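Good day; I would like, with your permission, to put a structural problem before you. A protein sequence and the structure tokens that stand for its backbone fold form the material at issue. I would ask you to consider whether the tokens describe a fold that such a sequence might reasonably adopt. I set the record out below, with my sincere thanks for your time.
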Amino acid sequence: MDIRETITMRHKVEGCSIRFLAREHRMSRKTIRKILAEGGVVPAYTRKKERPSPVTGPYLKIIETWLQGDLDAPPKQRHTAKRIYQRLLDEYGFKGAESTIRKVVARFRRKIGPAPKSYVPLSASWGEQAQVDWGQAVVRMKGEEKTVHLFCMRLRASGVCFVRAYDGEKLEEFLDGHRMAFEYFGGIPGECWYDNLKTAVTKILAGPRRIEHEQFSALKTHYLFYAHFCGAGKGNEKGSVENLVGYVRRNALVPVEEYGDLETLNNHLVCWCDGERERKAEKWEKERAELRLLPEIPFDCSRATVAKVDSKNLVRYDSNAYSVPDGHRGAIVVICATWDRIRISQDGSLLAEHIRSREKGRTVMNILHYVPMFTHKSRAVRNATVVRELGGPWEEARLLLDERPEGYRELAAIILLLKEHPLDEVALALQEALRLRSPEASTVRQILLNRKGRQIPCVTEPPEILREYRISVPELGIYDRLGMYS
């Protein structure tokens, strides 16, 4: 039995006095009283004065001053332990180790930093709430690293999630992410929680009030859910989805693998979400039963604007230009942009559709929109951007024909075949003509007809315009007179 326990027991159980216990154990009465006051617990050792720090001692006041000054600096421009160590090396010739400075900095931050915050646990009923956020991840596409943007939605009660990758975080992607998430869940939660995203909020007012983007408001009205926004810097109010972003990066996208395109990546993410949902099957069944039904018609996630067709058959949208068919110069058209497509129409009729360019300053053209112009502007094919962008056999034929004085006429004639035949078929026929070393329009046309089981018909009768033409019979006697001069 420990001596402290013995003293406590003899005093409180057997009634021994403090004087008697002091004599019995040869201790002072002050020590006996201290043991009794502590209730027999072994007192923790406390250092009465700081251990000397010969290496860091001269620099402690400097480090503390720097850290105190950081309290007024922007959060992302404050000293790190590594930066403090580097400054001590450069400015004061510090001779110690970086690990020593890291320990000193950690001790000072506990001393002068704000007290750790505590949070109230949050929960939601089945089908009541979803949380939405954006995140980023790095994947490999076409042999290069690419940063994709992840739209993440998680149902709060069951934890079932939906993740979809996009090229950016524009309004079109934001709207499409909601539509795809609701269709994946097969229903709609009662409310969604967000940060103060610019795609959803145009202005933050006092308290919880927000001025929302009109198309986001239309989305809410279509799917009948309420939107709530976290306070500024209060991402913890939707911590469930905040954790989801990191969870997806660590579990669905590790290791960093190669994906052919966004569609392949999104198929992978859907399969991953399916697996996560199966692990929560019991909770999911309860949540799914409480979700509201989807409307019969999905929400139109496009963004519409008007534009004027310029002299080059182009309209501009989001810092890029897109072509329309010839004959619409000066027309006012409607551009409907989704996250991946650009549709251009006039008076309700679709004029053109393009894959949306994610780069800036690009011109996206369709060769078919310019084919009629080469009927009377054949020389333009030599330098036409839309022809040069075709590449492959088209570029090879252009370079070969460019060596001929009027080779541009032959190239224009080949392009005019697109009036009658699809682009891919003409390209294959041109490739075959190049193999035969005959990059002429007649060769390409014959190859196209042969592949369709047709031939160029033989002309057995002269054209009507030539039927009346008569050639005079020459007088052969003139050749006899040539001998007179020999």
